[in-house]
Amino acid sequence: MTLATMVLADISLEGLIWWIIVGLIAGFLASVVMRGGGYGIVGDIIAGIIGAFIGGWLFGVLGIHIGGGLLGSIIVAFIGACILIALLRAISRSSYRR
Predict the structure, then answer these.
(1) Is 58 inside any structural domain?
(2) For residues 34 and 19, what is the distance between their CA atoms, to the nearest angstrom?
(3) Rounded percentage of the chain residues whose pLDDT exceeds 90
(4) Predicted confidence (pLDDT) per residue in 29-74, tens digit
(5) Which one of 21, 36, 40, 48 is least enclosed by Cβ atoms within 10 Å?
(6) What letter would DSSP give residue 12?
């Protein structure tokens, strides 16, 4: 069960806190791996949460199951956040070329 399905199944204060924690960890790790300057706490959380949806969708389409729990959610969110950062960089570079 990925982060997205965990929280959608359990919309509570505890679920929201877990989203924020996983988003922060995944977003921070993605910004470090992608050699970005970091996006700040809020930016890392947002990148991690959006990354969780991207990663959850991508893993579901590919039929890959990492495993449930916190570590599996962080891995999926991290991979999705890396994809998000790469897409945002590609879009911003293409807009400079015009």
Answers:
(1) yes
(2) 21
(3) 52
(4) 999 998 876 678 898 899 999 999 999 999 999 998 887 788 999 9
(5) 40
(6) S
Report the interhelical angle of 13-33 vs 40-62 (nearest 10°): 90
Q: Give me the number of domains the chain comprises.
A: 1
Cβ partners under 8 Å of residue 55, min gap 6? 2, 76, 77, 78, 79, 80, 81, 83
Instruction: Assign 3-state DSSP to the chain and report helix, strand, coil percentages, each to 5.
Output: 80, 0, 20
Q: For residue 23, is it within any domain?
A: yes
Residue with token string 């199951």: 65
Closest CA to 50 of 34, 27, 67: 27
CB distance 42 to 96 below 8 Å: no
Given the structure tokens 């590609």, which residue do they identify?
90
**Entry pTM:** 0.81
Inside any domain, residue 97: no
- Assigned domain for 81 exists: yes
What's the rounded Cα separation, in Å, for the pair 33 and 82?
8
